[in-house]
Inverse folding.
């Protein structure tokens, strides 16, 4: 069993340790899906498809986000934000989902 399986609360805690934010975790997943070094940082204005992402990568990023951050996000909202918005919009969507999960 890896760090991202098991109970949702355990997943969220392991993915979001004190030195990892939603933005940091999503940045690594985004870069990984684009085949880029995960040591970099994604800027808020970057758009997944303009950076070389494709539909398979977008679906993978959606799955990664739900599993690694233990979030429930509507697939249409996530993929729509990914298609029409930028990284900053996507992070805010994930942060809202996290806030809703804890309230």
């Amino acid at each position: 069993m890896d760090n991202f399986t098991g109970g949702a609360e355990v997943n969220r805690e392991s993915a979001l340790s004190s030195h990892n934010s939603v933005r940091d975790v999503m940045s690594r997943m985004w870069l990984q899906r684009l085949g880029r070094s995960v040591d970099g940082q994604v800027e808020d204005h970057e758009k997944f498809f303009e950076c070389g992402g494709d539909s398979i990568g977008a679906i993978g990023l959606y799955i990664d986000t739900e599993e690694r951050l233990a979030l429930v996000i509507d697939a249409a909202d996530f993929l729509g934000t990914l298609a029409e918005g930028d990284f900053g919009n996507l992070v805010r969507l994930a942060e809202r989902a996290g806030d809703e999960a804890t309230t």
In short: Residues 8-102 form a domain with the Non-ribosomal Peptide Synthetase Peptidyl Carrier Protein; Chain A fold (CATH 1.10.1200.10). Helices lie at 8-15, 22-33, 55-69, 75-84, 87-102. Residues 1-10 have pLDDT under 50 and may be disordered. Residues 71 and 98 are 6 Å apart (CA to CA).
